């Protein structure tokens, strides 16, 4: 009998990015998939050039076209440009 094992492979950055959202909750972004979700659904600011670059880089990382850490760098730059406050990592 053959069993199917459901395995989820999630791309993670070496260090997550923690942001404080407008609702005063911390938001922990652990990799490019989380970043794409945040950029597309929760981005609180105007969509700038760095926002577009971060989105492109995160999609490229998920598609295995660039290293995962390159997407993190682009996401951090977009967050800094948007003046998002860095949050505390939840314990």
From TrEMBL:
Any single Pfam family the record assigns to this protein: DUF982
Keyword entries, A-Z: Plasmid
Stored InterPro entries: DUF982
Gene3D superfamilies with a match to the protein in the record: 6.10.250.730
This protein's name: DUF982 domain-containing protein
Protein's organism: Rhizobium sp. ZPR3
